[in-house]
Amino acid sequence: MSTSPAAEAAKSLSGVAAEAARRRTFAIISHPDAGKTTLTEHLLLAGGAIRAAGAVRARGENRRTRSDWMKIERERGISVSASVMTFDHDGKMFNLLDTPGHEDFSEDTYRTLTAADAAVMVLDAAKGIEPQTLKLFEVCRLRDIPIVTFINKMDREAQDPFELLDEIASKLALDPAPLYWPAGSGGRFKGMVDLRGQRFIPFSKPSEQQDGHPDPVPMGGNSLAAFLDEAERAEMEEGAMLVQEASKPFDPQAFLEGHMTPVIFGSALRHFGVDELLAVIGAYAPPPKAVAATKNGAETKVEPGDKEVTGFVFKVQANMDPNHRDRIAFLKLCSGRFQRGMKLKVQNTGKQLSVNAPTMFFASDRELAEDAFAGDVIGIPNHGVLRVGDSLSESGTLRFQGLPNFAPEILQRVRVKDPLKAKHLKKALESLAEEGVTQLFRPTLGADFIVGAVGQLQFEVMADRLANEYQLEVIFEPSPYAEARWIIGERADLEDFAGKHRTAMAVDIDEQPVFLGKSAWEIGYVAERFPKVRFDRSKERA
Ligand code: G4P
């Protein structure tokens, strides 16, 4: 008996919702050096996406030797480009969004976090919560992103685990719910108890480690004696008992609401605790959720199982492949079943594009995506059509709440050494600003450009990219400005304000008016005198 077209449609729709429900899209947040790169690699290993540790770095090195883009990345040993890696494991499709670790690139990281449905917070067991961890945690909290905590480097001398949990509770106002409890640390690290399964998971020292760690053994039995002496066992059992009395039991709902974080101890480098971490993400991290949007001006919610294909661009990256001058826009899908060759429209420009060569970033290499669902990230090669914050959909009428542009903290004037190349400079600066690398302001008076960035290193990266990709030698000079504010208000009020502050007015890349202040004090002063004008530190992309 053949099914009706309506029944077929309903079936495929539930398929769309089911596919979305098995997505786990997450990012790793940490302070530099806590072990994010190592953990990324070992998560890919745990997920079966790569076969041997060392592959992530090796691939990175390869890429770098083929191109000298991001020389800085190599020279400074930091990762400045975010990417996404996808792997199918244990019935779930994991999308791991990689974020740069250096604080100068936090804006990029913030943007990437807008595409994450969950985050893993990596702490160095000897250091606890460090400044960058705190900053990124705050972004996650703002966006209600649930957090799983991985306390790394247990194979080194660590802080007392109770102190680490206290720090999470007091600094982050988050209830830590340990799912495992460690036995010792450093040279005395013996493994951990699975507090819910009443198993002991032994850790073997690198010198004794051949094919991974020994299999877990039940607590209580004699088999524990093979791994722990009496004193170690007593200490671990006492700790496990105490921590269970002192902390709230893990509540998945409290985790989803952002009040509680499950805690796992481990060693990324020794591949310990990583399988458990992946299992926790698979079991408890949320699938993509409904997203607030407007459709033809009316407020609506886009459900992951909705038929229409929709998504938003959270990152644009140029020249990922040195052989092609391509620019890849990373689109986080919010609903529907995306299929290759599909036509999508950009809401704010009305432009339509046929997505014939979308890429998905499987850990092994880039691959063409045949289909993708809510939660997935696809890379769309394009030539400047797509910008960070763009909403894409089949109808072209949907707009997701814009991604904020963060207020730049340093403003510098940029000049090209060869004056004949001024026009060329304008184009190059606009491209980089479209990517979201930096912000660009064109003062109403004069011919200079002012570039805004969150940190000093961004200027170096920019100069490097201008030289390598656009053959432009540039000089950054101090500008008289310290603060940029987007001005919002009635047209007449804005015109009045702009007319009185002509020398300090500029426009951003979308021609929106920006006031450049010499100090925070000056901003406060003018804001008081022009109460009808709002001075925003960041803007939602129109
Ligand atoms: P990041 O991306 O967060 O900046 O950290 P990354 O993974 O690069 O790790 C920083 C350093 O910490 C690396 O050592 C790495 O090997 C080490 N590390 C990461 N996880 C663990 C762990 O679980 N145990 C121990 N003992 N070390 C760990 P490095 O000496 O800076 O680099 P490398 O020369 O080892 O590559």
Write a structural description:
The protein is α+β, with helices and mostly antiparallel strands and 542 residues long. It folds into 3 domains: 19-284, 3-Layer(aba) Sandwich (Rossmann fold), CATH 3.40.50.300; 291-402, P-loop containing nucleotide triphosphate hydrolases (Rossmann fold); 405-540, Alpha-Beta Plaits, CATH 3.30.70.3280. The chain contains 14 helices and 34 strands. Helix 2 packs across helix 10 (274-284). The site of guanosine-5',3'-tetraphosphate (G4P) has 16 residues, from helix 2.
Task: Give short descriptive properties of this protein.
542 residues; Rossmann fold; Alpha-Beta Plaits; binds guanosine-5',3'-tetraphosphate; nucleotide-binding; translation release factor activity, codon specific
Give a summary of the structure in a few sentences:
With 542 residues, the protein is an alpha+beta fold.
What is this structure's SSE topology?
Blueprint lengths: L4 H17 L1 E8 L5 H11 L8 H12 L4 H6 L7 E6 L2 E6 L8 H8 L4 E7 L6 H12 L4 E6 L8 H12 L2 E4 L1 E4 L7 E4 L4 E4 L14 E2 L11 H17 L5 H5 L3 E6 L8 H11 L6 E5 L2 E5 L7 E9 L8 E9 L1 E3 L3 E4 L5 E3 L4 E4 L2 E4 L2 E3 L3 E6 L8 E3 L4 E3 L3 E2 L4 E7 L5 H14 L3 E5 L5 E5 L2 H15 L3 E5 L4 E6 L2 H10 L4 E3 L5 E5 L2 H10 L4 E3 L2 E2 L2
Parallel strand pairs: 1-3, 1-4, 4-5, 5-11, 6-11
Antiparallel strand pairs: 2-3, 7-8, 8-9, 9-10, 12-13, 12-24, 14-15, 14-23, 15-22, 16-21, 17-18, 17-23, 19-20, 25-34, 26-28, 26-29, 27-28, 27-31, 30-32, 30-33, 31-32
Helix pairs in contact: 2-10
Low-confidence segments, given as residue ranges, are: 58-73, 76-82
What structural class do helix, strand and pairing data support? alpha+beta
User: What form results from the Cα inertia axes?
Assistant: globular
CATH topology of the largest domain: Rossmann fold
Q: What fraction of the residues are assigned to beta strands by DSSP?
A: 25-35%
- For the terminal residues, how far apart are their CA atoms? 51 Å
Extended strand count = 34
User: How large, in whole angstroms, is the Cα Rg?
Assistant: 25 Å
CATH architecture of the largest domain: 3-Layer(aba) Sandwich
What composes the largest sheet? 8 strands, antiparallel
CATH class division of the largest domain: Alpha Beta
* Domain tally: 3
**Helical amount among residues, as a percent range?**
25-40%
The H-level CATH homologous superfamily of the largest domain, spelled out, is P-loop containing nucleotide triphosphate hydrolases
Bound molecules: guanosine-5',3'-tetraphosphate
- Tally of helical segments: 14
Strands side by side in the biggest sheet: 29-26-28-27-31-32-30-33
Mean pLDDT: 85
Keywords: Cytoplasm, GTP-binding, Nucleotide-binding, Protein biosynthesis
Family: Belongs to the TRAFAC class translation factor GTPase superfamily. Classic translation factor GTPase family. PrfC subfamily.
Protein name: Peptide chain release factor 3
Subcellular location: Cytoplasm
